[in-house]
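Retro notes (design track)

What went well: tokenization of the new backbones is finally stable.
What didn't: we kept losing track of which sequence belonged to which structure.
Fix going forward: every design gets posted as structure first, then sequence, in one message. First example under the new rule, 126 residues:
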């Protein structure tokens, strides 16, 4: 989505400047084939897009910003794993007509969380 918006802006700018792909190639140092491929929306390296954008008078800045902390991601993954374990236990219990009450489910969940937190962090993402 973002890539398409950037390319569309570049195409619009190219038209408004009345500049040829050949001239963009010469100014940017990117091959004519890459310029045409980029402006037609085909896959191109970020570096090539940046050079083309610069040749059209754009500054090119991309920022990635974390939306959550690593600790938050870890905690969410631990909860996800614990929920999966508890769901399996509850399904098995339901099949045996031995569904636990809410208090027991809470205890099972707490135990699952504690057990998962003992797993090395490097393995928690699997």
């Amino acid at each position: 989505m973002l890539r398409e918006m950037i390319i569309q802006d570049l195409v619009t700018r190219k038209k408004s400047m009345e500049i040829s792909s050949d001239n963009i190639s010469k100014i940017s140092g990117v091959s004519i084939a890459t310029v045409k491929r980029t402006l037609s929306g085909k896959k191109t390296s970020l570096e090539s897009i940046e050079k083309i954008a610069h040749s059209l008078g754009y500054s090119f800045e991309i920022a990635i910003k974390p939306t959550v902390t690593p600790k938050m991601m870890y905690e969410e993954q631990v909860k996800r794993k614990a929920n999966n374990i508890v769901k399996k236990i509850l399904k098995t219990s339901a099949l045996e007509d031995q569904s636990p009450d809410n208090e027991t489910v809470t205890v099972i969940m707490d135990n699952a969380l504690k057990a998962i937190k003992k797993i090395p962090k490097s393995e928690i993402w699997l």
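Added context from the reviewer: The mean pLDDT is 91.
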